[in-house]
Write a structure and sequence with these properties.
Rossmann fold; binds magnesium ion; ligase; binds adenosine-5'-triphosphate; 16 helices; nucleotide-binding; aa-tRNA-synth_II; 5-stranded mixed barrel; cytoplasm; alpha+beta; BirA Bifunctional Protein, domain 2; single chain
């Protein structure tokens, strides 16, 4: 420690917003270079290499081969997949001296696809899996939480290439298994969450989330232990309601009732319920008009705009992100005034099922009836107060399935604590987490966009099935620190600690320092990593404080007892299990304790 490039800080850095960022800086593992950009110091780099080492071992263990791509890449491949635009402000773009466009890669699907296309041409070459551990760049809107959301960060990204979908499924399962081993070895808790595909577009995908309060992701947990990303949640089929005693529907005057609140007040004032109870927002069905911005497809040469109506219970809010996930790759937005004008059958504030979907198609005079999708919480047979398509009018006792139909169901509303879980195992609860990894069945998206084909057994050129698999290596390091620390400092799991033993010599007498140095060589001979605090004229108090801050799992002290009794004290980082051991046996005792930690 007298020569280690290290300065521990007594004070918390002013802008550290989470414990891991605070402690990693105070303990001299990282320094801030710019918002979301970090410098690795010797101790931090040691931990990083250990995390990388475990990732590497497990990923090589499933047969993937390591390569390394540059971070600085030309625009063209990203143009071909539309990601040059799709990433928006999230990528760092730059020009070279000749004016050519470049980017700092946010992820590398394009480059891996092109590399395999460049070198492979036959089904006999497949399957193959490649990976790298490499620096990525994303111009995050809000870098935060130290290494958790950086603008420069380290990712392990792996890609599988297989001749068919079955091969993809196997590669996906292999990778998923490796992730479980990696996170277990790293000492981070994880929840595997069903995800929907983001801008990558694909099929099956799962995220590995570290359940931490500092996380920005919310996931829903079922009593069965299964978990879902909020966007991926599906509502289990709701039971039909018996409507045999529901009276016929009836249009009634409800003046000035454009909002659900006003409608409920009018209904209670003018048409009290027969059972004496109050009408509530849950008795109303609101119909929201959205615009779906479709991308071009087989039928449409150009992107096109579709007006769609969504029916949802009046006591629930629409969740535009969840709704949008179901129209992917299309995007959605609320319909504009212009959209509404093109549909004279819509009476703003009073839009009802009769002007939508199947009902509208049966009517004369509606030029282009809007598709009508029903939120999955609306049961068939249930009765509603809903718009009558006339100013100041609503229909009462409109029964879904009896009086009106939809064109299908959709997940439209915000999910709530207590909603039934997709697998029917009980009510959902919500937790916060940090995404530490993701596994993704890409399918044919990139091979089609970039023309990656091989000849199959019949000599026919076929696109290659791809999967991609990311782990946020620097982020996961922060999550380990977040999960393993106390108020005095870091407390690393042995597998990633910068050393296994933090040895200090205290006092002024040479004997303690001599005994400590002897122990250092014995430990190093056994291949045990040791941080040795040999600083003269530094008080024991300061040395203890630093040991607790740095967070090495075992602490050994050569001092007064060494001189008096020839013993060295061994204790755990948290101060527990303190013992005095004869100096000659200390190395063995430490080796035993380390073995027990693993
Ligand atoms: P997020 O939703 O947190 O922005 P993402 O889903 O965009 O992440 P991916 O494209 O799936 O991220 O990247 C793979 C992994 O890289 C993520 O699972 C995460 O662990 C890590 N990662 C992504 N963005 C960052 C970042 N800004 N800083 C550190 N690690 C990141
Ligand atoms: Mg992700």
């Amino acid at each position: 420690m007298s020569s280690l490039f290290l300065r521990t800080l007594r004070e918390d850095p002013a802008d550290a917003d989470v414990d891991s960022a605070r402690l990693l800086q105070r303990a001299g593992y990282i320094r801030k270079a710019a918002p979301g950009v970090w410098t690795w110091l010797p101790l931090g780099l040691r931990v990083l290499k250990k995390v990388e080492g475990i990732v590497r071992e497990e990923i090589e263990g499933i047969g993937a081969q390591e390569v390394h791509f540059p971070a600085l890449l030309p625009r063209e491949p990203y143009e071909a997949t539309h990601r040059w635009e799709e990433y928006g402000d999230n990528i760092f773009r730059l020009k070279d001296r000749h004016g050519a466009d470049y980017l700092l890669a946010p992820t590398h699907e394009e480059m891996f696809t092109l590399l395999v296309k460049d070198l492979y041409s036959s089904y006999k070459d497949l399957p193959v899996s490649l990976y790298q551990i490499q620096t990525k760049y994303r111009d995050e809107f809000r870098p935060r939480a130290g290494l958790v959301r950086g603008r420069e960060f380290i990712m392990k990204d792996a890609y599988s290439f297989t001749i068919d979908e079955e091969g993809l499924r196997k590669a996906y399962q292999d990778e998923r298994g490796a992730y479980e081993r990696i996170f277990r070895r790293l000492g981070v808790d994880y929840v595997i969450v069903h995800a929907v595909s983001g801008p990558m577009g694909g099929s099956e995908s799962e995220e590995f989330l570290a359940p931490l309060a500092i996380g920005e992701d919310t996931f829903a947990l079922a009593p069965s232990g299964k978990a879902w990303n909020v966007e991926a949640l599906t509502t289990p089929a709701v039971q039909d309601v018996d409507h045999s005693s529901t009276p016929a529907m009836e249009a009634r005057e409800t003046p000035d009732s454009k909002t659900i609140e006003a409608l409920v007040a009018q209904a209670n004032a003018l048409y009290p319920r027969s059972d004496g109870a109050e009408w509530t927002a849950a008795d109303t069905l609101k119909n929201l008009i959205i615009a779906v911005k479709h991308v071009e497809d087989e039928e449409h040469e150009k992107p096109w705009r579709e007006i769609v109506a969504i029916g949802l219970p009046g006591d629930r809010q629409v969740d535009m992100k969840r709704l949008e996930a179901q129209f992917a790759p299309a995007e959605i937005e609320e319909a504009t005034e212009e959209d509404l004008k093109a549909h004279p059958e819509f009476v703003k504030g009073y839009i009802g099922p009769m002007a939508l979907g199947p009902q509208a198609r049966e009517k004369e005079g509606i030029a282009e009836p809007a598709r009508y999708l029903m939120d999955a919480h609306v049961a068939r047979g249930s009765a509603w107060i809903t718009g009558a398509d006339q100013e100041g009018m609503h229909i009462f006792n409109a029964v879904y399935g009896r009086d009106f139909e939809s064109d299908g169901t959709v997940e439209a509303v915000e999910v709530r604590q207590g909603d039934m879980s997709p697998d029917g195992s009980g009510p959902l609860s919500f937790q916060r987490g940090v995404e530490i990894g993701q596994v993704f069945q890409l399918g044919l998206k990139y091979s089609n966009a970039l023309g990656l084909k091989v000849l199959d057994q019949n000599g026919k050129a076929v696109p290659v099935w791809m999967g991609c698999y990311g782990i946020g290596v620097s982020r996961v390091l922060a999550c380990i620190a977040e999960a393993h620390h106390d108020e005095r400092g870091l407390a690393w799991p042995a597998a990633v600690a910068p050393a296994q033993v933090h040895l200090m010599a205290t006092g002024k007498k040479a004997e303690a320092f001599d005994a400590a140095e002897q122990l250092v060589s014995e430990l190093e001979e056994r291949g045990i990593e040791v941080i040795y605090d040999d600083r003269p004229k530094v008080s024991p108090g300061v040395k203890f404080k630093d040991a607790e801050l740095l967070g090495v799992p075992l602490v050994a002290i050569a001092g007064r007892d060494t001189i008096a009794n020839g013993t060295i004290e061994i204790r755990n980082r948290d101060g527990s299990d303190s013992v005095q051991v004869p100096a000659a046996e200390t190395a063995q005792t430490l080796a035993d304790r380390i073995a027990a930690l693993r």
